[in-house]
Amino acid sequence: MMEQGTATVVKHTGSHYLLSVLPEWAPFPAVIRGKLRLAGTKTTNPIAVGDRVEFEGETITKILPRKNYIIRRSTNLSRESHIIAANLDRVFLIVTIILPETKLAFVDRFLVTCEAYGIRPVILVNKIDLYTEPVLQEQLADFKALYRNAGYEVLEISARKGTGIAQVRALCRDGLTLFSGASGVGKSSLLKALDPTLNPKIGEISLSHLQGKHTTTFYEMHPLAGGGFVIDTPGIRGFGLVDIQPEELSTYFPEMLRVMDNCRFMPCTHTHEPGCAVKAALEAGTIAPERYNSYLGMLEEEKKYR
Fold it and tell me: What are the structural domains of the chain?
């Protein structure tokens, strides 16, 4: 093992970490020196998978600056946040129409965070082999239209049938990709489909709540046989925004950003002001009411936490 140098965090469980000097895959254990904290950030985890760090022996001595990260408000800790992963090239947000149903509010909060931190999101609609009934096909079509019209890439996949897997594998080939989503959407099954040599835990859906049971209990990076690295995460039940000012929130909705320069007043909250281009686009049907309602919900949420 190297005496000292720079490496990437590839696994985090409790207070213990695994590091590797990427692109070489040779993980070794490490712990944090003393109380290594990020200045001015109230996070439950000072170091995240994907972080580049300096180490001496088996001790992490310094966290290097991040190019980006995904962060959310910690469950039941409104003043604290949790960094999911850092230094990402893209994020795959995996969603399902049923078993379980992914809520639009969750999707929108996740996408806003990606926009705020400059990370490219790709939405993967998994389990499309289940959507055979006309009503489900209609829901799928509506979901795709909603997010494609907003400006996002939406792909249909089935980890079980192999549909779309080659396309996802090609996207993963370069750099670091985060796999995220609510519990039960099939992240682990998707990883297994992408690279059969991986052995992520695969859980059953909890039918009593129609939500997935957590099967991944820690954050872990994997090298893919076809190239690139992926980060597997525990299923997320809620996604609260962190450090996003109410006046900048609309800039993280691409469809609002396209028209907001035409608002009569600047800044404009797009709620009550006359001559608002966003509300005009909403009335014209070029901004979806579902997305606008998500925006209003986030505005209220940010006021509550301030």
Answer: 4-64 (2.40.50.140), 85-232 (3.40.50.300), 246-305 (1.10.40.50)
